[in-house]
Write a structure and sequence with these properties.
12 helices; six-stranded mixed sheet; five-stranded mixed sheet; alpha/beta; 337 residues
Length: 337
């Protein structure tokens, strides 16, 4: 998640926003006293952010209307009235997480969450919410509506996957290899249904080492060549990781930002625990305090998964790839899912 931006327009609204910030106990939370919405909204209207208007719904609707693009890229937007009685998600309820965040706000305020999405109201499996919570990239998003419509009308929806399934299938989800409408969970680019909603698991984790001031284009080219060499879809990249000394390395940050990939860093102590597993470089250790960065960080990010690409070197850069052991889990799903 990005930042939580609390927008207040009056003294009373600001006091409530400060209370919300205090009770949320989330590090990247900001209270904004806003006087010029037209100038302010483009600054915070980014995917991953949660925007909470403390005030009237009408103000929020007018402010976000010119910026709304697509359900896969719009941020979560909610409204809380100044008395803190109601919490209303108005944009990106599932993919952006506005509905879940509304529940969280309502609990800490003792307020009523006003959820209006049909799948939530009817306790029907929400495929887009499931995808976000379980780290899938959604392809063919136009079929989200088709899947939801089928389930709301109590019609069967097919499910095809090459992964082990944990837990009971949601109601009216049926295992099928083909059909008219269905969900396909795989890293392969196939379409077994006439209308296929494709969920691609973000199961490949890239560990990267790079000398200081590595050229951005050099690292990007190295990364893309590795994808091609190992036949890894970009949609299935779950993370890029490195040592915390590289947390501000421009080339790595640029790569992660350009392709919307999570960037994770580990301390030398966290990496050093696994020295015996991977080959060690005295040179790297003299600089970072640990003898292997790329393989160890990818290993940790993959939850100790399987090696796909052993450490590769190119002009002061290293890359390694591990694959997370993946299962399709319907266990512990929220009742609305």
């Amino acid at each position: 998640m990005g930042s939580v931006e609390l927008l207040a327009f009056t003294d009373k609204g600001q006091r409530l926003a400060e209370t919300i910030k205090e009770r949320l106990e989330l590090e990247n939370t900001h209270v904004n006293r806003v006087f010029g919405l037209k100038e302010f909204m483009p600054v915070v209207f980014h995917k991953g952010n949660v925007i909470v208007f403390v005030g009237a719904v009408g103000i929020a609707v007018r402010a976000i209307a010119p910026l709304i693009a697509h359900k896969t890229t719009d941020p979560a937007v909610l409204v809380v009235d100044e008395l803190g009685k109601f919490v209303i998600p108005i944009l990106s309820g599932h993919i952006g997480g506005a509905n879940d965040f509304a529940d969280k706000l309502a609990r800490i305020l003792g307020a009523v969450p006003v959820i209006t999405t049909a799948t939530d109201l009817n306790h029907v499996f929400s495929v887009d919410s499931f995808a976000v919570k379980n780290n899938y990239e959604i392809k063919n998003t136009e079929h989200i509506k088709t899947i939801s419509g089928q389930l709301l009308n109590r019609h069967e929806v097919g499910l095809c996957t090459d992964f082990e399934i944990l837990g009971d299938l949601p109601k009216n989800i049926i295992l099928k290899q083909s059909g008219k409408v269905g969900i396909y969970i795989s890293s392969k680019r196939d379409y077994p249904f006439e209308k296929t909603l494709h969920l691609m698991p973000k199961k490949f984790h890239f560990g990267i080492g790079a000398r200081k001031n590595t050229e951005e284009l050099d690292l990007e080219e190295f990364f893309l060549r590795t994808l091609i060499e190992y036949n890894i879809p970009m949609e299935c990249v779950g993370s890029i990781s490195s040592i915390d000394l590289k947390k501000d390395e421009k080339a790595i940050l640029s790569l992660a930002d350009k392709y919307h990939i999570q960037f994770i860093t580990y301390s030398k102590d966290e990496l050093g625990k696994y020295d015996s597993r991977f080959s060690q470089s005295d040179f790297v250790k003299s600089i970072t305090g640990v003898g292997n960065v790329c393989e160890t960080s990818a290993f940790l990010s993959s939850k100790m998964g399987n090696l796909v690409c052993k450490k590769k070197r190119l002009n002061g850069m290293t890359i390694a790839v591990f694959e997370e052991v993946w299962r399709v889990s319907f266990e512990n799903q929220d009742a609305r899912d």
